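Q: What does the assembled structure look like for these inputs?
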Amino acid sequence: MPEAKDYSVTETLRNGRQVEIRALRPEDRAGLIAAVGRTGEQSLYRRFFAPKRGFTEQEIAFYTNVDQVNHVALVAQIEEGGRPTIVGGGRYIVLRPGRAEVAFAVDDDHQGLGIGAALMRHLASIARSAGLEELVAEVLPENGAMLKVFEKSEFEIRTAREPGVVHVTIRLS
Ligand SMILES: CC(C)(COP(=O)(O)OP(=O)(O)OC[C@H]1O[C@@H](n2cnc3c(N)ncnc32)[C@H](O)[C@@H]1OP(=O)(O)O)[C@@H](O)C(=O)NCCC(=O)NCCS
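A:
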């Protein structure tokens, strides 16, 4: 399996289109900002747990300059009008040895095509190869799509519900 920093695979989506799932690169900054611009308020709220209109330079640097070891980030890219376009991304950040937090976002027009599930599958496979034992996520209780992506994954998942948040633990081993 390629290292996270060189990761690239192509998959066929539910609508027959091809998507490349690949490592995020520093030069993706503009593509990532454009993808956030095409993502609706509700989706951004579900990703960041707060209304999100813009990002500071510091936040942009944090999300784009990743080491692909303790902060692993993948993007989903499709051809749109003949141009490669980032339409989603998934990342994990190691919290302590063996355990990392995951989060995903797909722009509104490309949700429901299987991109979230593909990002999850590849991120989990990178995490497993890196020796991680579990992935955790915090999900809003009304976020059925995210919960479904975790439930559909090949891994054993545990959920703990609290008012306002579902804590999800995915066992990789
Ligand atoms: C959550 C998210 C990443 C999933 O990505 P996606 O590409 O839409 O996911 P997929 O297409 O792989 O799968 C979504 C599944 O949820 C299902 N789904 C959609 N809305 C649902 C709902 N309200 N309740 C239950 N299931 C739902 C879809 O039918 C699909 O299941 P299927 O493959 O069995 O048909 C995407 O919807 C998103 O970006 N949401 C906003 C940001 C966010 O919530 N991030 C999560 C933070 S941890």
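The radius of gyration is 15 Å.
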